[in-house]
Amino acid sequence: QVRLQESGPGLVKPSETLSLTCTVSGVSVSSYYWSWIRQAPGKGLEWFGYIYNSGSTNYNPSLKSRVTISIDTSKNQFSLKLSSVTAADTAVYYCARLLPHGNHFDYWGQGTLVTVSS
Amino acid sequence: SYELTQPPSVSVSPGQTASITCSGNNLGEKDASWYQQKPGQSPVLLIYLDTKRPTGIPERFSGSNSGNTATLTITGTQPMDEADYYCQAWDSSTVIFGGGTKLTVL
């Protein structure tokens, strides 16, 4: 059974870097595409980008300048870094598996709330 | 940039058919997916590749995609189907989500 679990600080100060990790169980992270998606309170879903294989990435152009997604195959994890955060980055952050045939997300983590505040 | 447009809300009576639309330029040429999200929960994949249901998704959920519109249809809507629904597609190597539709069953 595939499971994804987000972890990281729930509170980040403005201008700092948000860092989250997604731990995957049930499959190898080396074998699939993985994404980060967020949802601001009461809002819709926003995609950050994906990573696959040895670390090839593709980012949402609207966030690309601030986003880094990386992978640690030894820990079966992948991570998100979002720099220069503001209150507008307050959201629930989800990690998810992306299937390239159909480009859809079949497994999601439970999500983690990150609040940006001083 | 590419956009997907959904109605903010749709209402349906229990047992009736609900249709939620998702509009985008030539969306019918892309693969559309649909997700259901209940309050406090993660999104759940309902439909992928326009019409396919993952294992475990009830048959009352179906999808279509043609022209500029993808449609999620819920036949025999149940109170448990009250949720937010999001369409999703892929354009220029970027994942796009619709703004979401709140389905009310009353």
Plain-language structure description:
The complex is a heterodimer of chains A (118) and B (106). With 118 residues, chain A is mainly beta. Helix content of chain A is 0%, strand content 55%. Chain A has no helices and eleven strands. In chain A, a hairpin with a 4-residue loop joins strand 9 and strand 10. With 106 residues, chain B is mainly β. In chain B, strands 1, 3, 4, 7, 8 and 9 form a six-stranded mixed beta sheet that branches. In chain B, strands 2-6-5 form a three-stranded antiparallel beta sheet, with no helix packed on it. The radius of gyration of chain B is 13 Å and the shape is globular. The termini of chain B are far apart.
Supply the key terms.
heterodimer; A: 118 residues; mainly beta; seven-stranded mixed sheet; four-stranded antiparallel sheet; B: 106 residues; six-stranded mixed sheet
Quick summary of this structure?
The complex is a heterodimer of chains A (118) and B (106). Chain A has strands spanning 3-7, 11-12, 18-25, 33-39, 45-52, 56-59, 67-72, 77-82, 91-99, 104-108, 112-116. Chain A is an all-beta fold.
Order of helix and strand elements from N to C terminus of chain A: EEEEEEEEEEE
Largest interface: A-B, 23 and 24 residues
Tally of contiguous helical segments of chain B: 0
Low-confidence stretches of chain B: none
Number of helices of chain A: 0
The shape of chain A, in one word, is globular
> What's the count of strands of chain B?
9
**Main β sheet profile of chain B:** 6 strands, mixed
Main sheet specs of chain A:
7 strands, mixed
Could you outline the blueprint of secondary structure elements for this entry?
The complex is a heterodimer of chains A (118) and B (106).
Chain A lengths: L2 E5 L3 E2 L5 E8 L7 E7 L5 E8 L3 E4 L7 E6 L4 E6 L8 E9 L4 E5 L3 E5 L2
Parallel strand pairs in A: 2-11
Antiparallel strand pairs in A: 1-3, 3-8, 4-5, 4-9, 5-6, 7-8, 9-10, 9-11
Chain B lengths: L8 E4 L5 E6 L9 E5 L6 E4 L13 E6 L2 E6 L8 E9 L2 E4 L3 E5 L1
